[in-house]
Amino acid sequence: METKIWKKTELAEAAKVLKKGQLVAFPTETVYGLGADALNEKAVSKVYTAKGRPSDNPLIVHVAHPQAVQNYAQVSPRAQKLMDAFWPGPLTIILPVKPGQLSEKVTGGLQTVASRMPDNALTRELIDQVGSPLVGPSANTSGKPSPTIATHVYHDLHGKIAGVVDDGATQIGVESTVLDLSTSQAAILRPGKITASQLETVLGENVDTSEHHVAADEAPKAPGMKYRHYAPDKAVYMVKDEDWTQAIIWAQSQLEPVGLMLSDQMIEQHQLAGMDFVWPLGPNGVSAATKLFSGLRNFDDQKDVKIILVAEMSHEAANAAYNNRLAKAAGQQYFDAQEMMEF
Ligand code: TXA
Ligand code: MG
């Protein structure tokens, strides 16, 4: 299959292909999604094949209007409050599914369904033109960093999908906050741009942020979170602020180049500006989130780079999404000078 890259002006073409049950990747404010008609079971099945995604990992249903959620989920007053406050935007809300309204291919066989209204006018127009909500997992090969530009999608999925609607780089760079509202205790299953305290302010109730709020013997709440994620083929290590001096000395002593991803301040402090194999993350965790996945992909594509060192950001709420994705990409491993000397 030849995979097309469509410009904004070619949206009708993309809608036509989706209506026929084929796959089209679409832009959002977080990352690119892999779209299929959520009401066409055969189309939804193709998403799992194209991504190589485990079939028990449910999909997010993307809508163009909040009212569309009523068709397939039970929208509680507290869910409505959050939709009013944060939609369109990077918040996915999990609610009880209305029986018989969605394929098990969408819900992964759960009694709940995840919904989100993306803050991208082009994609909302696409959903309107198709006339059905679209499922939309991140448009990467399962386990790889999520795509923040159309070229990333093409790299992973060309030949497997009909096309991608190109709307430039996404603004946020990491996926939406996933909030479980299907039980009485609201819980964040995946951190994102919208923080727990923002949600608490609107809800007027406490939001669990432990990401482990189910007993160990129960099924994980967000099935996707149990898999290794966002990981390039290369070895990735997190680096704490205080370890960068040693990390740079170590990197510069290696025969093969080591990829370094760090803040502008660290680049200046260690006089690395303009050097090869340095990927600037900008001034803070928010800018870093926009550059994390593209940086990992950049070094993944450079054959001689075998190891990537990436800055952890300070532990504050605004950096939670960045640190969460980085920790997953690094398999929780930190750079440790002592250990690395023996590498
Ligand atoms: O920003 C985003 O959310 C992007 C863009 C494209 O919208 N989409 C995205 O989808 O990140 P995906 O499939 O890569 O991640 C969805 C996460 C997975 O961890 C999945 O297990 C979880 O949400 N999820 C989906 N439905 C669920 C449900 N009913 N209950 C619990 N977790 C669910
Ligand atoms: Mg994903």
Automatic annotation (TrEMBL):
<feature type="binding site">
    <location>
        <position position="112"/>
    </location>
    <ligand>
        <name>ATP</name>
    </ligand>
</feature>
<dbReference type="GO" id="GO:0005524">
    <property type="term" value="F:ATP binding"/>
</dbReference>
<dbReference type="InterPro" id="IPR010923">
    <property type="entry name" value="T(6)A37_SUA5"/>
</dbReference>
<keyword id="KW-0548">Nucleotidyltransferase</keyword>
<dbReference type="GO" id="GO:0061710">
    <property type="term" value="F:L-threonylcarbamoyladenylate synthase"/>
</dbReference>
<protein>
    <recommendedName>
        <fullName>Threonylcarbamoyl-AMP synthase</fullName>
        <ecNumber>2.7.7.87</ecNumber>
    </recommendedName>
</protein>
<feature type="binding site">
    <location>
        <position position="53"/>
    </location>
    <ligand>
        <name>ATP</name>
    </ligand>
</feature>
<dbReference type="GO" id="GO:0003725">
    <property type="term" value="F:double-stranded RNA binding"/>
</dbReference>
<dbReference type="GO" id="GO:0005737">
    <property type="term" value="C:cytoplasm"/>
</dbReference>
<feature type="binding site">
    <location>
        <position position="190"/>
    </location>
    <ligand>
        <name>ATP</name>
    </ligand>
</feature>
<keyword id="KW-0547">Nucleotide-binding</keyword>
<feature type="binding site">
    <location>
        <position position="62"/>
    </location>
    <ligand>
        <name>L-threonine</name>
    </ligand>
</feature>
<feature type="binding site">
    <location>
        <position position="116"/>
    </location>
    <ligand>
        <name>L-threonine</name>
    </ligand>
</feature>
<feature type="domain" description="YrdC-like">
    <location>
        <begin position="8"/>
        <end position="194"/>
    </location>
</feature>
<keyword id="KW-0067">ATP-binding</keyword>
<dbReference type="InterPro" id="IPR005145">
    <property type="entry name" value="Sua5_C"/>
</dbReference>
<feature type="binding site">
    <location>
        <position position="57"/>
    </location>
    <ligand>
        <name>ATP</name>
    </ligand>
</feature>
<comment type="function">
    <text>Required for the formation of a threonylcarbamoyl group on adenosine at position 37 (t(6)A37) in tRNAs that read codons beginning with adenine.</text>
</comment>
<dbReference type="Pfam" id="PF01300">
    <property type="entry name" value="Sua5_yciO_yrdC"/>
</dbReference>
<keyword id="KW-0808">Transferase</keyword>
<dbReference type="GO" id="GO:0008033">
    <property type="term" value="P:tRNA processing"/>
</dbReference>
<feature type="binding site">
    <location>
        <position position="176"/>
    </location>
    <ligand>
        <name>L-threonine</name>
    </ligand>
</feature>
<dbReference type="InterPro" id="IPR050156">
    <property type="entry name" value="TC-AMP_synthase_SUA5"/>
</dbReference>
<dbReference type="InterPro" id="IPR017945">
    <property type="entry name" value="DHBP_synth_RibB-like_a/b_dom"/>
</dbReference>
<feature type="binding site">
    <location>
        <position position="138"/>
    </location>
    <ligand>
        <name>ATP</name>
    </ligand>
</feature>
<keyword id="KW-0819">tRNA processing</keyword>
<dbReference type="InterPro" id="IPR038385">
    <property type="entry name" value="Sua5/YwlC_C"/>
</dbReference>
<dbReference type="InterPro" id="IPR006070">
    <property type="entry name" value="Sua5-like_dom"/>
</dbReference>
<feature type="binding site">
    <location>
        <position position="230"/>
    </location>
    <ligand>
        <name>ATP</name>
    </ligand>
</feature>
<feature type="binding site">
    <location>
        <position position="146"/>
    </location>
    <ligand>
        <name>ATP</name>
    </ligand>
</feature>
<dbReference type="Pfam" id="PF03481">
    <property type="entry name" value="Sua5_C"/>
</dbReference>
<dbReference type="GO" id="GO:0000049">
    <property type="term" value="F:tRNA binding"/>
</dbReference>
<dbReference type="GO" id="GO:0006450">
    <property type="term" value="P:regulation of translational fidelity"/>
</dbReference>
<feature type="binding site">
    <location>
        <position position="30"/>
    </location>
    <ligand>
        <name>L-threonine</name>
    </ligand>
</feature>
<comment type="similarity">
    <text>Belongs to the SUA5 family.</text>
</comment>
<keyword id="KW-0963">Cytoplasm</keyword>
